Amino acid sequence: MNHHFGKVWKSYLDQHFSAERVEDARNSILGFLDRQDLNGLSMIDIGCGSGLFSYAAFESGACPLFSVDYDGLAVDCAKRLWEHAGKPQDWNIQQGSILNDPKALNIPRSDLVYAWGTLQHTGDMWKAFRHSAEMIKPGGLFYVAVYNEVSGVGLRSSKFWIEVKRIYSRLPTLFQEIVFWLFKAGFSIVRLLRFQKPVKAMRRGMDHDVNLRAWLGAWPCEFAKADKVIRFCEGELRLKVIRTHLTDRLANNEFLFQKPFDL
Known about the structure:
Layout: H1 4-15, H2 19-33, E1 43-46, H3 52-59, E2 65-69, H4 72-84, E3 91-95, E4 110-116, H5 125-134, E5 136-147, H6 158-168, H7 173-193, H8 208-216, H9 226-235, E6 240-245, E7 252-258
Parallel strand pairs: 1-2, 1-4, 2-3, 4-5
Antiparallel strand pairs: 5-7, 6-7
Helix pairs in contact: 1-4, 2-3
């Protein structure tokens, strides 16, 4: 098992977790859902990572809440925030893979299934989509974000970053650290040449360095154009698209789908 993400999220909690970042995470969820809170909604956080968004969802009223990650180190991170929240009985955290039979997770279908930037790192993204859809209650919501596929060559293309991530994931830790600092310096120089601040402001409660480490080490990974995601979800999974937030850059496209009441 590649524990890259677990190590990154542990570092995030150790150095950057704060009430302000929780509020940013909370606003990112509620803003896209166009809700004031999550009261009355059960929720599953697939690939809970640091646990930040599970914590923000719990603070927003999601109940019961189920957090799942295949990485034991990430599960430990989520449990730290569960303890920080007072060890609530209606927040359940477990280790597991969305690629396995959803029934094996022993989690009831929920009103909201949240998978922000996680299904693309399973090694079989479309299978992960299918299993995620099985976990949505009839009439429930599926909030998912996926890397946008960008054609072309060089730094702006998906194919370039697939190779970078593949190579980076195989490097010894020392060489990974060197590559990280080279990219950080390069991105900062480019921003300065554009008369911008050297460090880009982060959304969703994230930290710049943590985000870059997660980006470089995010392997396996897949990219998909927005129309392909929508066609798959509407066609095969029979979900209805409610809302999108799309980009033409190398970033995550966000989608909100609803499951029909008769499924």
